[in-house]
Design goal:
Rossmann fold, alpha/beta, 444 residues, Alpha-Beta Plaits, 7-stranded parallel beta sheet
């Protein structure tokens, strides 16, 4: 954990801002954020809900705004909910600066939001979906935006805003500062944010250190049977099974499928839509086992993985390290396994403990969710809320029956509770979404 004991600086403007909020000083988290906001271009702030993260990033953001720039947006703050976006707007307005802020979110009249852009605000805050909608409509210029804040980014990912955030990030040519906040460590930072060398400020209480446990596994009676025993040990946890060649992934996948283990394959020989479909299923939990090559070792937007299984060891140590880097991330725990065989590489750690999976363990349960393919997407002017509403109203789904919804340009995916799928497809047969006939089926 990073702890910072910093003296309150003699800064008349800061003191005035705090007085407007009715507080006398910043807490340690806010002090550290303000200090590193000035010196670092990439920050990840981890702090508990209610600890004052909004003020922590808004105060230095306000100080970084340039008064000479009045015709361009300078900073963008993304929030996973309208409530959090409105809170950001309220705190900013409470500082009573000369800078304008606009707040955009779904359910708010687009006409009203466009009117607020007649004089460019210095700061725009809002939900990723609505901000992305504005950018697609070219309602405001982005060439002046140098600061991007994603508040509660873990919640934004959980709610399925990743593609919108990726699109927004791609529309910011002048971006120089990125700040992410979260109240939990149990999530990976999306690769598109380019935060590999970010400064982490961790003020979460009682946070356990990252821990990767490495084990060797005897091959008995065969390699594939040992793999099956490991997956039985993993149970409902997620696992990446690494192979060195794409042909091997297909072979392993077919063998596991024959044993009743639902899995997906990921390698460079697949078409883009096939790769994306595998990742969608892994992200939404409708498959817990991803059979992959080193293409999955880094740069993918997938959730934290509990187990890494090296069915085949890579030829180089750096590949081994990158594979293992998919687990035990952001202070979580994870395990990695390799199989004992002749000619193990010299770079493997010495005295790795032996793991002997229990051969009597039952088969892993089927995933709770199934991925549903929906034959319309964003380019059909379909929104995530349209899909959620349709599946709830026409399909009879309760809130807990629907998992992650992901939208592509011309189709979408939705994770649905396994035991509800048959009834859902029966209920929605022949029904329309936004007056459109839509193909819906279990994703292959």
């Amino acid at each position: 954990m990073y702890l910072y004991a910093m003296q309150h600086e003699a800064n008349p403007q800061l003191a005035e801002n705090l007085a407007r909020l009715g507080i006398s000083s910043l807490n340690p988290m806010q002090q550290a954020t303000r200090e590193y906001f000035m010196s670092e271009n990439k920050l990840v702030l981890l702090s508990a809900t209610g600890s004052g993260k909004t003020l922590a990033f808004l105060l230095p953001l306000l100080e970084a705004l340039q008064p000479a720039i009045r015709n361009k947006v300078q900073a963008l703050v993304l929030s996973p909910s309208r409530e959090l976006a409105l809170q950001t707007e309220q705190v900013f307005r409470s500082l009573r600066s000369s800078y304008k802020i606009s707040c955009f979110y779904g359910g708010h009249l687009m006409k009203t939001e466009k009117q607020s852009l007649q004089q460019a605000p210095a700061v725009i805050t809002g939900t990723p979906g609505r901000i992305a909608d504005h950018l697609r409509r070219n309602t405001f210029r982005t060439d002046g935006i140098q600061i991007l804040v994603i508040d509660e980014f873990d919640k934004a990912l959980e709610l399925g805003f990743e593609e919108d955030m990726r699109f927004i990030h791609s529309c910011l040519p002048a971006l120089r500062k990125r700040i992410l906040t979260s109240a939990t460590t149990a999530v990976d930072v999306p690769a598109f944010m380019q935060m590999e060398d970010a400064r982490y400020l961790n003020f979460l209480p009682q946070t356990a250190p990252a821990r990767l446990e490495l084990f060797r596994v005897n091959v008995q009676p065969s390699l594939y049977n040992s793999l099956l025993q490991l997956l039985c040990h993993a149970g409902s946890d997620s696992a990446l099974v690494f192979c060195n060649f794409k042909e091997k992934t297909a072979e392993v996948s077919a063998w596991l499928s024959s044993k009743g283990i639902e899995n997906a394959v990921f390698h460079g020989g697949l078409e883009q839509d096939e790769r994306e479909r595998s990742l969608v299923k892994f992200r939404n939990g409708s498959v817990r086992v991803l059979i992959c090559t080193d293409l999955a070792a880094r740069g993918l937007d997938i959730p934290a993985v509990k187990h890494i299984i090296h069915l085949q060891l890579p030829p180089h140590e750096d590949s081994f390290i990158h594979r293992n880097g998919r687990t035990a991330r952001m202070h979580t725990e994870g395990s990695a396994y390799f199989f004992e065989e002749k000619g193990l590489p010299a770079w493997l750690p010495k005295d790795v403990p032996l793991f002997e999976p229990d051969a009597t363990l039952p088969m892993p349960p089927l995933p709770d969710f199934v991925t549903l393919y929906i034959g319309k997407g964003k380019k059909d002017k379909l929104r995530k809320l349209d899909i959620v509403g349709f599946l709830s109203q026409k399909g009879g789904l309760e809130k807990d029956d629907l998992g992650l919804v992901e939208m592509k340009d011309f189709f979408s995916y939705a994770a649905v509770r396994r035991h509800r799928v048959k009834d859902l497809l029966k209920r929605t047969a022949g029904e329309r979404i936004k007056n459109m006939q839509v193909k819906m089926e279990i994703s292959r």
